[in-house]
Amino acid sequence: MRSEDPKTFLFEFEIICRSYGYSLHIQKLNLFLATLKDRTLRWPMTLGTNSIRTWDDMKRLFLEKYKNYCIHHDLRNDVFKMNQKEDEILEDLVDRFTYNIKRYKLHNLG
What we know:
Layout: H1 6-20, H2 25-35, H3 38-42, H4 55-66, H5 75-80, H6 90-109
């Protein structure tokens, strides 16, 4: 979707992999394909044979394909204009803040 960011998708995918103990590249490759949907699910079939040999190949090709699909979103607002929601406990606010900081760093450093 145009509202989804491919770097954020990969960031969240890496979190899922860590939480399930999937540290091997082959595990990530296999699981990654299972997370794709709609037109994105058909994308790997358009690649040439042996285009993807490693997890790094997958990330690179995925980002190349979808980098311009995302509507730009200024992640600074997600960090610097955060407010604690009315029913939000401080721990949840800190978790949300940490998540947004990591996303911001990912987009600006990587």
